[in-house]
Amino acid sequence: MSTFPNEIVTCQLANGRKRRVFAKYQAGQSHESYGHRGDIPYETEVYRRILQPLPEFRPRCLGAYTDALTGEVSLFLEYLGDNVRLSDMVWKRSVRQPWAMAQAARWIGHFHASHQERVDDDSLAFLKRYDAEYYRGWSQRTYEFARLLHGRFPWLAELCKSDDWFAPLLAEPPSVIHGEFYAKTVLVRKQSLFMVDWESAAVAAGEIDLGALTEGKHWPVALVRKCERAYVRARWPEGEPGSFRRTLDAAKIYLHFRWLGERPDWTVREKNLSRYDDLYATAKRLVLL
Description:
By secondary structure, the protein is of the alpha+beta class. The protein is built from ten helices and ten strands. It has helices spanning 40-51, 93-115, 132-145, 156-160, 167-171, 207-213, 221-235, 244-260, 264-268, 273-285, and strands at residues 6-12, 18-25, 61-66, 73-78, 84-85, 128-129, 175-177, 186-189, 192-195, 202-204. A four-stranded antiparallel beta sheet has the order 1-2-4-3, with helices on one face. A three-stranded antiparallel beta sheet has the order 5-8-9, covered by helices on one side. It has a three-stranded mixed beta sheet with strand order 6-10-7. Helix 2 (93-115) runs parallel beside helix 7 (221-235), helix 3 (132-145) packs across helix 8 (244-260) and helix 8 runs antiparallel to helix 10. The two termini are 37 Å apart.
């Protein structure tokens, strides 16, 4: 579930009680991903400055430790037992998973609404910010890594070499986003949801998180639409902005480039080829091709 080494530690307190803690370790590792992902010190700051002030947010941050010799950071979080990832729900799946998906969309919509006005706070200056150079890098790497597929997808050059595809993402007021808000980063326990793995938090268009949550052909269209409605009602109670659909489509294009432009072997492997079909359809819908 986590990008970094982790374990569940059982601690015995001074009063004899035991407590389980989820520990994440820097351990000399880095998963920078071309400026997309942060490390354990980065995620620690996300918890301290953004998540910890939220009164009902869990898992709670219990603290962090910096090794005096190596400077590496370990992050300690409340351990949440008896949970299941939203993506892995099996028991009463047909009822519980759609409910949890809509709840997750609603939660992230509220989160974006409440943090949109904070993006220029000095306390959040440490956050990564998606700009034109950031978005352009993903499409350019995708085109470079996809050399063997240029004949199969001749339209790719036109899409990747233009900046038009990410213009809607820069046109809208940004907020603080999770950055990889897929169903696997949402834990469900009974009627409660817990959002984890915040090392990719950034300042960008909130539609990116919604697009990640609902990405994939395995989600029924009716469920995707339900999540979109839940998100819109939570973020914009006054009504859906006229630019929402266009920005959401641009976010979907970004998410495809994000994974196709990560590693050359991912760009051409069989299981990812369907991303090109979705890229083409979405680009046509935005009249980019």
